[in-house]
Design brief:
It is a single chain. By secondary structure, the protein is of the alpha/beta class. The protein has a single domain, classed as NAD(P)-binding Rossmann-like Domain (Rossmann fold), CATH 3.40.50.720. It contains eleven helices and 13 strands. The relative contact order is 0.15. The structure holds NADP nicotinamide-adenine-dinucleotide phosphate (NAP). NADP nicotinamide-adenine-dinucleotide phosphate binds next to helix 1 and strand 5. It comes from Pedobacter fastidiosus.
Length: 304
């Protein structure tokens, strides 16, 4: 059996590092990890790393020509929703133009392109959403992801789009935090926190998302797939579950409305996904939120 060679973009990120970890542990595919700058994954053995800035089309072409992957899992992106809103030009270059660079190369070289997208393509009026529900982004981040999805749909590439929601987990030297680590960290220090009680999500364990990406490669998936955790909750409930799990003081959690937060980018109220298609077609089997917290806790005790 020929082992599939997978090139991961943004391998220093949360999903990128979880993909690296999983591939090294399970050996189901061969890995070429790529990211901007130096490799921040702690182990250098068992895979190849190449520096690849997705804003540099010449470098992207050179790396793909050199390593000849069968599939690309494209995780690199501008992922901070407020930064994307404040710098739309940069967001367009990273989340749209760079995707076109990859699409052109994947068309030319017959490479499968597994692209990461978001629940923020929806307006949040009617969640949970199915894959074919109409998109209506409220933020420029969401709009940029819709534009990239359109490029893929109109391309001749062999593409799969994995949409995901509020990813949490822990890795080495993280570029940014996530809701679980933020809430745990603040409550442990006794810092009072404000959390919104009028936004609903299905938080996704980074390991589950990494597994879905590898399943999409192994099954040569094509089309759009919803990939999230299976539990639906408000952000306030999520934070209370974090407090419960680590037995932290809940009296310093204040529930507020989204309106009072005054964030740069607007957030959808009620997202969440119907997971039936991904469970049936890919064999996706996500953990519960409680199980996810247990996994993060064990990793913190062991590695971080
Ligand atoms: N996290 C979520 O809650 C969430 C929700 C919905 C969808 N998604 C999507 O899922 C994907 C993965 O997200 P994530 O949580 O793993 O994000 P992340 O932790 O922010 O990782 C993104 C990675 O992309 C890298 N990157 C940025 N600019 C680059 C460039 N020009 N060239 C190469 N690499 C570059 C970053 O490098 P540095 O580390 O050096 O900055 C970072 O390591 C993204 O497409 C995101 O939009 C995420």
């Amino acid at each position: 059996m020929n082992t599939i060679t997978v090139l991961v973009t943004g391998s220093n990120g949360l999903l990128g590092q979880k993909l690296t970890e999983k591939i090294l542990e399970e050996g189901r595919v061969k890995l070429i990890a790529t990211s901007k700058g130096k490799n921040r994954y702690p182990t250098q053995n068992g895979y190849l790393y190449a520096e690849m800035d997705i804003l540099n089309p010449e470098q992207v072409k050179q790396v793909i020509d050199k390593y000849k992957p069968d599939s690309i899992i494209h995780t690199a992106a501008i992922t901070n929703v407020d930064t994307a809103e404040a710098d739309k030009a940069l967001c367009h270059r990273l989340n749209v133009d760079a995707v076109q660079t990859l699409i052109s190369l994947c068309e030319e070289k017959n490479i499968q392109l597994v692209h990461l997208s978001t629940d923020f393509v929806f307006d949040g009026a009617n969640g949970p959403y199915k894959e074919d529900d109409a998109v209506n982004p409220l933020s420029y981040y969401g709009e940029s992801k819709v534009m990239a999805e359109e490029l893929l749909k109109n391309s001749k590439a062999n593409w799969a789009i994995l949409r995901t929601i509020l990813v949490y987990g822990i890795t080495n030297d993280m570029s940014r935090s996530n809701i679980v680590l933020w809430a745990k960290g603040a409550l442990e220090k006794g810092l009072p926190i404000n959390v919104v009680n009028d936004q609903w999500r299905m938080p996704t364990l980074a390991e589950d998302l990494a597994e879905a990406c590898i399943l999409a490669v192994e099954k040569n998936a094509r089309g759009i797939y919803n990939v999230s955790g299976k539990d639906y909750m408000s952000i306030a409930d999520l934070v209370r579950k974090v407090a419960d799990y680590w037995a932290l003081n809940q009296s310093i959690i204040s529930e507020i409305s989204s309106e009072s937060l005054n964030q740069t980018a607007k957030r959808p109220i009620r997202t969440g996904f119907v997971l039936d298609k991904t469970i049936k077609d890919l064999g996706y089997n996500p953990h519960s939120f409680e199980e996810g917290l247990k996994i993060v806790d064990e990793q913190m005790k062991k590695n971080y």
